[in-house]
Amino acid sequence: ILSALFVLSALPALFLGMVAGTVVDRANRKHVMIGADLIRGVLVLGYLFVHRLDQVWIYIVITVCLNIVSTFFFPARTAILPQILARRQLLSANALAQLTHTLAVVVGAAGAGVLVGVFDPPSPAFIADSLTFFASAFFIARINTPGRVRASVQRVQQGVAAASSRLRSITK
After folding, report:
1. 35, 134 contact by CB (below 8 A)
2. CB atoms closer than 10 angstroms to residue 62
3. What is the DSSP letter of 27?
4. What CA–CA distance (Å, rounded) separates 27 from 40?
5. pLDDT, tens digit, for every residue of 104-120?
6. Which of 83, 137, 144, 171 could form an S-S bond across to 37 if both were Cys, CB 3.0 to 4.6 Å?
7. Residue 66's CB: how many other CB atoms inside 10 A?
8. Which letter does DSSP use for residue 142 in this model?
9. What is the Cα–Cα distance from 172 to 157, expressed in whole angstroms?
10. DSSP annotation of 121
């Protein structure tokens, strides 16, 4: 069962990675991240319905769905950084993003282990996990992107206009 879970968990990134990148490039990245977190927060609550071994299929389906949604979240997180940070801050921001992701996995797993060990059934662990996604959506919603996004779009438009005028002067 575990090997099937690992294989099924890897498939969304394999098959949807390119689609997710395209969606993230065309959509409002902040909205993609908020939507993904809200969906993941609700999905995690589905684990509360698993009580017996014959219901393990629910766990597998929810885990695959979580990985599908995460396939959209992580590219959006990476792509939004240049919109909200100066170029000189990107290296540090990417390193910090990777560090916080790793810490969340390690600390989250340890915290879940404690909650599962203390509570029977492990409902508080799933509720806490769900709340982390809702908290993340709340904080992402507070990110101010409009000014930098508009400025980035204006710079691109100015660059295209300048390149277009240079091309016209060369072809004359």
Report:
1. no
2. 19
3. S
4. 19
5. 889 988 888 888 888 77
6. 137
7. 22
8. T
9. 23
10. S
What are 1's two structure tokens?
A: 């069962």
Q: CB of 8 within 8 A of CB of 59?
A: no
Tell me, what amino acid is at 103?
L
In the block, which residue shows the tokens 């996604």? 133
Closest listed residue to residue 42, CA positions, set 69, 21, 20: 69
Q: Are 85 and 45 in contact (CB under 8 A)?
A: no
For residue range 15-26, list pLDDT tens digits in order: 888 889 889 989
Task: Give φ, ψ of 145 to 5 degrees.
Answer: -110, -20
To which residue do tokens 């993941």 refer?
Answer: 40
Alpha helices by DSSP H, listed for 27-145, are 29-45, 56-84, 90-118, 123-141
Bond from prior residue into 82 cis (ω within 30 degrees of 0): no
Tokens of 43: 């999905």
